[in-house]
Design brief:
8-stranded parallel barrel; single chain; alpha/beta; 260 residues; TIM Barrel; 12 helices
Amino acid sequence: MPAPKNLFKANLLEGRVQTGCWVGLADPYVAEITASAGFDWLLIDCEHAPNDLRSMMAQLKVIEASDSRPVVRLPIGETWMIKQFLDAGAQSLLIPMVESKEQAEALVAAVRYPPEGVRGVGSALARASRFAAIGDYLTTADREICLLVQVENRAGLAALDEILTVEGVDGVFVGPADLAADMGHIGQPMHPDVVAAIEDALIRIKDAGKAPGILSTNMDFMKRCVELGVLFAATSIDVTLFASAIRAEAKRARELVSEQ
């Protein structure tokens, strides 16, 4: 029996646009609610949300049981951490702050078993192999891993063309917030200079045969990004959705009392 088929990766390879949501509330119960909403993919954020390996795995389980496909963003692209997250069952990884071809090559090696890579062989202990119940896991796991690298500063954009030549990088995610900050426009991801840089990057990614990705809650901008070839598009963030909704409800409650 081979490793589970990665439907998120399969859809990218087929050129299907997938819409997603950022999952940052760091709770499996909330993740399960979000997984029932109908998004194509959900990003479990371990970079800026208070997630560790165990909390990530708990959310991974409930998302896997839904029709949404899980993607996990690590806090950093360290080989030992990648190994742990893969063994826990994550198949699609987003790695932040990739700035060079050499870094991208090291990440490819980290997600592959020897002799093609350096991933440690401990599948008998791993949830990814169903604790050794998947007999062919070691020989089939590599092809189902989806590696997404995040380019989000001027150094990454300068190295983008070289990063795009790296075999084994399945997609490149452009990070508007960090890019805006690095370009001197912190808090202004829709600044014309930032938008122009993003659009140029998305075109280059698509032309290189990689899957472009992005996160933005600006729907007009997202429509433009999809027109440019974005294949994994995150349009919502659970934290901001909840914060906005609960504040609005509190405001309504205060208004009810003030009317008395």
